[in-house]
Amino acid sequence: MSVADPGRRVAFVTGAGRGIGRSVTLLLASHGWDVACADRDAGEAAATAGLVAAAGRRSAAVIHEVTDAPEADTAVAFAESELGPITGVVTCAGVEITGPATELPERVVRTVVDVNLLGSFWTAAAVARSAQADDREAAMVLVASVNGRTAFPGQAAYTASKGGVIALASALAVDWAPSGIRVNAVAPGVTDTAMSAGSLGDPEKRAALLARIPMARPAQPEEIAEAVAFLLSPAASYITGITLPVDGGWSSRA
Amino acid sequence: MPEHDLPTALVTGAAGGLGFSIARRLAERGDHVVVADLGEDASAARADELRSAGFSAEHRVLDVTDEEQVVAAIAEIDSRTPLSTVVNNAGVAFSSPLLETPMSRFDLLFSVNVRGTFLVMREAARAMTSRGAGSIVNICSTSSFTASTGPMIAYDASKGAAAMMTRAAGRELARTGVRVNGLAPGTMDTPLVRGLGSSDDELAQLAAARIPVGRLGGTDEVAEGAAWLSSPAASYVVGHILVIDGGWLA
Questions:
Q1: Does the beta-carbon distance from A239 to B163 stay under 8 Å?
Q2: Which intervals hold domain Ketoreductase (chain B) (predicted)?
């Protein structure tokens, strides 16, 4: 975490308005990154961008719906016009909707895959187009989930989408290695965010979840952000195509 | 030995290419480093090198296959300067086809890479769990997950075992405050890798053909992984083997 990089660093973070995305944005700012804070919610994007500015880094609020593929290039172009060339990407925008595969409406399944998997795809590809156009190195982290490799009951759509994110990180890493773009995934375990409030807030569900975590506690979003910041940094210069679980030992696997 | 109150890191096999890079990186972040290796001269020279650069270091002759020696060494070091990081880096590697591998060679690999790692991990954990804090990093390999391109069946098996011990110990110790993780380097430019018999041309061809980033890894790049895993930034990472391979396994 301590390799100094003299160059300007600009990150594009989706889902920056809340939860893990917000923590990632603030940690990157504290490490010297300028951050384009992308979120579908204009108010939340602006609020996070304000915090980055208050921390002394440049920021831009980017109102962006990650499922809107044609708009990805526009959002990236806007961010670069505000902050300069992007060298870091973190795709945090995500949605978790559970239910039996036999009963989930098509619309719901498509939304989960659209946001979690395809949203990461469009964002990563838009930045890669920009970076490759001027031969610029970059690093990307796609936020997956331990559920991308370990199934839970009722999570077929979510698990399939996050498993797809893990495969996508490998595929993009191989495709873009020759142009100096590293792509990795971070797979958070149970994390103390608004998205997990439903399960962590219910004492019975909380106990059941914690019983399965070797460290017997949920992650703080800052702990996920640390892994993201490491993978984006020059210290991870030979790391590409991996998935880094930050899960308190849940998966105990590579 | 100068008095200090620095966090202390023990690195085994620290006279070697990767081991010394890790020792140096941990010294750079402010650890007092115990440079442990088989030979007195080599380990002393490496510790001297760190001290000359302004870092805090000592050396220790250590054969990780010798139970009495490991037990005594870790107890002595820890009583004097409490261990916060232990990197299990000592390892041996050689190509050897199944049909031509004498059991003595198989036993050597397992004695160092598996039994030695287990033993150092056990003693480090005994010291650290009493304080409820510490970090252990076991050097595994991409061969923990995929068979080597050359015939290295016994080596591959030993690294597979190292990876599973890492997961199991990570899980078992998760609630004690001691974190156990691993590193899986891909093909690095080290004497150990060159000792496997490939020429410079062959290594360059391997990099171009099989490693997505098109080059071998630097030991300094792998050392960064050891530094991160053993830092507070990795506080929720346990039982994981961090692959540093330029995309080889992707």
A1: no
A2: 7-194
